[in-house]
Amino acid sequence: MSARDRILGKLRQNAPSTVRSLPDVAAWYASHRPSETADARVARFRHYIELAHAEVYSVSRGDWTATLHQVLKARGIDRLLVAEGTPHGELALDELPPRGVECSLYDMAIEAWKSELFNATPASLTAARGAIAETGTLILWPDEKEPRLMSLVPPVHIVLLDATKIHNTFHEAMTSEGWADGLPTNALLISGPSKTADIQQTLAYGAHGPKELIVLLLEGEA
Amino acid sequence: MSEHTLHFKPAEGFRARSKAVVDSPFLRQSFRGAMDFLMSKRAAQFPDPEELESLRSLGEAIRQYNLAKLPDLLLQLESRLTVNGIKVHWAETPDEANAIILGIVEGHGATRMVKGKSMVSEEIELNHAAEAAGIEALESDMGEYIVQLANEKPSHIIMPAIHKTKEEIARLFHEKVPGVDYTDNVDALIQIGRNVLRRKFLEAEIGLSGVNFAVAETGTLCLVENEGNGRMCTTAPAIHIAITGIEKIVEKLEHVPPLLSLLTRSATGQNISTYFNMISSPRKPGEKDGPEEVHLVLLDNGRSQAYADEQLRKTLQCIRCGACMNHCPVYTRIGGHAYGTTYPGPIGKIISPHMLGLDATAGLTTASSLCGACGEVCPVKIPIPELLIRLRNEAFSAPQAKPAMRGQGAGHSPLISAIWRGWALVYRSPALYRAASWLGSRFGWLLPAHQGAWTSVREPLRPAPQRLRDRLKERNKA
Fold this sequence. Notes:
The structure holds 2 protein chains of 2 kinds. Chain A is built from 7 helices and 12 strands. A 4-stranded parallel beta sheet of chain A has the order 1-12-7-4, sandwiched between helices. Chain A has a single domain (36-219), classed as NagB/RpiA/CoA transferase-like (Rossmann fold, 3-Layer(aba) Sandwich). By secondary structure, chain A is an alpha/beta fold. The longest helix of chain B is centred in the first third of the chain and has 21 residues, at 25-45. Chain B has 23 helices and 10 strands. Chain B has helices at 14-22, 25-45, 49-68, 70-84, 94-107, 119-123, 126-132, 142-149, 166-176, 186-203, 229-235, 256-267, 303-307, 323-326, 329-334, 345-356, 358-361, 373-377, 384-396, 414-428, 430-443, 454-457, 468-477; strands at 86-91, 112-115, 136-139, 206-209, 213-215, 220-225, 239-245, 249-250, 275-279, 293-299. Mean pLDDT of chain B is 94; it is low at 1-5. The termini of chain B are far apart. Chain B has a 6-stranded parallel beta sheet, with helices on both faces. In chain B, strands 8-5-6-9 form a 4-stranded mixed beta sheet, with helices on both faces. Chain B is α/β, with parallel strands linked by helices. Chain B has 2 domains: 14-31 and 44-304, NagB/RpiA/CoA transferase-like (Rossmann fold), CATH 3.40.50; 414-477, no CATH class. At the A-B interface, α1, α2, α6, α7 and β9 of A face α2, α3, α4, α8 and α10 of B. β9 (186-190) of chain A pairs antiparallel with β9 (275-279) of chain B. Chain B: InterPro entries: 4Fe4S_Fe-S-bd (IPR017896), 4Fe4S_Fe_S_CS (IPR017900), FTHF_cligase-like_sf (IPR024185), Helical_ferredxn (IPR009051), LUD_dom (IPR003741), LutB/LldF (IPR004452), LutB_C (IPR024569), NagB/RpiA_transferase-like (IPR037171).
């Protein structure tokens, strides 16, 4: 008999006879997390992610690349990893090089350029799929165009977030978007730059992931 | 294995290890300071007592619902993960789990493994098994990296290096990391760790992680962390191996948000951790990063024993937040190493007997004042004090024919049992009680002058020469 059969056998033999009813998670959220106006959600998202040491800039749809350029310039960064084939990546590719920022692309499998990503990529730009107001959290679903390590390895991670995509809670985000019907290879919640308090409870940023998380918050008309 | 190899030594030496901590002002200060910090951070996250109570009740209901369906959910999880391309392995014992993991590593001819924080990997002592097999297993969580560098074990399940001061860590880095000058600046120390470990993330073929929640309906492994090392371990190497206890399973994705909220708020007083990482498959065709292979090892190691008993099953509700240790007056004074088990503190006292047997852990069940703080703060309402009393009964009662636990009766002493039976007899019978108290008042002077710890700071205990009942009789006559 395999370990699997033995474990399942022991559990089955002693499984409780009473069936418990499915806990009503939705009811708890309905009674404890009333829905908010869009403005209140934006304000709450901003409050919490800033508390977690992220920088947030309100930008408009027309000129967010100008803010992006300023953010990079202020840090002396002249190289940005962007996602080819995404609207924001293409826009950055059009507008940043003329202003002196070189744009590099994640255009091959990681094995071919791992060392360069780790050692010579100071910043990256990705979009967020959405966000969560309750905790000041960005939702990212990395994909072929915007792979997983883009939001992890470069020391500065810049995220473009559409303010209309902010949910009240994590529960609302996953239920309203039907996550249970299909999740991607990797879904991520990101709530600030990488940090640790493992040495004497002293908070330090940039433990293993990005040292800085910068959110460009797209507001206003489409 | 090297002479430095450390193993957990349950129970044995518990008193000596406790005394060593109590005698050290530095360690006491470290633990007291850290626990005060974590308690106040948690309290600040739950300003509304009604919300806390109802969320705890929801968390309890979710865990109990899922445990009730555990065998079915394990099969559902296995089949979803398999469809998603994640390979599932089952291990009854730590040795089996190590063999599975090292088998995968060796099957790929790999020699370098980076590890995200995983208490289950501590439970199976994977690092030692890997070392013996000539495989480098490097901890990458900053706290775990520090304790591994010092050849120690974590002293807290959430903050592994809580027993170390920054000066000790500064000396450790200076001595053990090549080319590092002494600095006790915390930011600089973290940067040193970051630089060392980034090279390792780049080079390692294998990434190992734990699992906080495994979602059966979607086949998803969820990881909670702040540093990003968990994401590194599960994304950068070509192979990801996750290991978890069989109990960490939820049926519905929707069960995750309440448990996640309870976990981070109870553990470190954060409304959410920096990263919540949900992994549902290996790299798909066209994707440019992520591991080509993902494995999940499901470990029993005594959990099925706890599962068999309705009361003991509640032990498995645990989501490993560590709030019970943060609020435990015993843990705060003696720290995590004194327990000698992988999981210290109140949760350690109720889960370790299932992993190691009551024969190895009988003493731990009594290392509690039963003040009840652990049960009050537990985010999923595990009745820890109740379970401690149950385990004491299991450990110290006479051996039974069909014991509920391995090692039942290990602490049993016929003499002590006889004394208690005698005590019960005397207190049930008025005539015997009167006779005994009369004997006590006449012959109390025979009791020794030195009565162990009691007389180290006090007068010896002696029955009064005149009993209360006699004095009352006299007074009533007068």
